[in-house]
Every structure is written in structure tokens, then in C-alpha cells.
Amino acid sequence: MPAITTKLKLLRELTVHENRMKSMQIELSVHAQDHKKIDALKYRLKQLEQQLRREQSEHQMASAAKDAEIDRLTNLVEDQLNKYRDLKDVNIKLDTEIATYGKLLELEESRLNAACSEASETSTSSASYHSIHDSTSTSYVTVSTVDVGIEIRDVDAIVESSFACTAKRMRAYHCQTGY
Questions:
Q1: How far is Cα 63 from Cα 26, in angstroms, rounded to an integer?
Q2: Among 2, 45, 122, 137, which one is least packed by beta carbons within 10 Å?
């Protein structure tokens, strides 16, 4: 009997050890699955880190491109402002030039009117014409010293127009007075 009890005892111990072994195998299997999950998570973490680096790089490139575009547009705006200022300066100069020529034309007309009235007072038309010629020459010199960028042939056309007007007035005066 002692042999049977010993056998039974050994069988119980064997069963306990087998149960323990099965539970350890289950735990080992669970740990193996956990290791696989951990390895999968590590792999996913590496992928996410690579994706993050890639996206950071793309963001930096996009940011650099945006900064370059901002710089380009800023330069373009500055160029446009400079062109606008230049055009504004030219506009002011042209307005001044127009005002100057307007004043010169007014002076020429008043001088011609004065010359015509002088011509009616003096009976010699050649003296009047000589006076007109001298005044026109003076005006011409004044116009040529103004830096307004008009060509000499334009000034000559104005002077010729003034002479033609004066000649018509003188003819009319001669017809009226008989001189």
C-alpha cells in the first residue's frame, strides 16, 4: 500500500506539475503574443516616426517656398511702388511743363496783342514786326533754357504759329488803316 499511496502521491504531483506546465505554456504563449504585439507596435512607431520626419521636411520645404513667394511678392510690390513714384514724378514734371508752356503762351498772346496795339499806334509795320521778332526770340531763348523735355521743332511750331497769327493781324491792320 505504501507503494500505491506513493504512486497516487506521485500521480497527483505529476498532475499538479502538468497543470502548472500547461498554465506556464499558456502564459508563455500570452507573453509570446505580447512580444509580437510589442514588436508590431515598435514597427508602427518607427513608421510613424519616419512619416513625421517626412511631413516635417515637407512642411519646412513648403514654409521655405512660402517665404520665398512672400519675398518675391514683396519685391514686386516695392518695384511697383517705385514705378508708381517715378510715374508720379513724371506726372508732376509734365504738369509743371504744361503750366509753363501755358504761361508762355499767355505771355506770347499778351505780347502779340500789345505789339498789335503798338503797331496801330506807330505807322510803320516793319518796326512792329522787328519788335515782335525780338520778343519772340527772347521767348524762344527762355523756352529753350527750361528743362522740360520738349523738342525744338515743337517750339519752332509754336513760334511759327505765333508769327502766322501776328502776320494776319498786321495784314488786317494794314487793310483797315491803309498803311
A1: 54
A2: 2
